[in-house]
Amino acid sequence: MFSNFYRVIKFALQNFFRNFWLSAVTIFIITLSFVTVNFFILANGFSDAVLTTIEQKANITIFFQVTAQESDVQAFKAEIENMPQIALLEYISKQDALERFKNSARVEGRTSIVDALDELEINPLQSSIIITARSIEDYPAILSAIEKSPYTSIIEEKTYRDRQSIITSIERLKGKIRDVGVSVMAFFAIIVALIIYNTIRITIYSRRKEFGIMKLVGASNWMIRMPLLLEGILYAVISLGITILILFPLLSFLQPYTTRYFDGLAFDVLGFFSDRFIVIFGYELAAAIGVNILASGLAIGRYLRV
Asked: Considering the entire predicted model, what is its pTM?
């Protein structure tokens, strides 16, 4: 049994090296397919990270009119703060807003603004409420409750809707990336299948006399067919190995740029693949082996006569 298995591997390697340049082109195409697919996976992971970051920073900031009475503001706050959708509610009074603004101006060296505010007899800043929901899906319910409140007349501005439009745009972009990625993967799967099909067909044609002699001396159909199938699997394994060798150094090179140009975005491109190494590359290897076995099997069934 082990001797037969050894012969199968030996014949598969012989097939591989006898048509070396054809094998090299096949591996190049499969590797290109792997790299392209992985960049679409990276783009999908990046869009997920952007959405998560925006959702974490999302909130509803309500600014009250300068003339709003404190009692009305407190009544509005008491009305909505016990909503189950609200995780955190922070009230910033006019005085607190003034002190924060002054402290910020002092840090930035704008002391003239602080002096001007000190000379004013009234506080020109607004009180506000910052609401953080338990999840992004809870914001519509909170906005609806705010709009139905009898105290809407004291509200001057709400800032959430702009963030909602950004989140919606990114979700649409993510959907387009996913759709394009699926189309590209399907395209490359067809190309790889055709390449493997023709590679095995050429191997069968170039070794047709040898296969006939093997059959005459007692070789089983299994002994003839299995090296060809194993050759297809070998293409997938080698291509995936080359992809990993290309991908990780490239991701290491890109990592500083993602940190520099996307400040505040907690996305580790290298860690994304490292943490999902078995899942991502395991599925890719399984899919590639499946496509290669299918293409090899079709070529063997059509062209090999033993």
From this structure: 0.66
Interstrand relation of 60-64 and 128-133 (parallel, antiparallel or unpaired)? antiparallel
Helix, strand, or coil here: 158?
strand
Q: In what order do the strands lie in the sheet with 128-133?
A: 86-92, 128-133, 60-64, 155-158
- In tens, the pLDDT along 261-306 reads 555 566 777 888 888 888 888 888 888 888 777 777 777 676 565 5
A 10 A CB-CB count for 16 gives 22
CATH placement of domain 58-159: 3.30.70.3040
3-state SS string for 211-254: HHHHHHCCCCHHHHHHHHHHHHHHHHHHHHHHHHHHHHHHHHHH
202 sits in which H/E element: helix 160-206
> Where along the chain do the CATH 3.30.70.3040 domains lie?
58-159
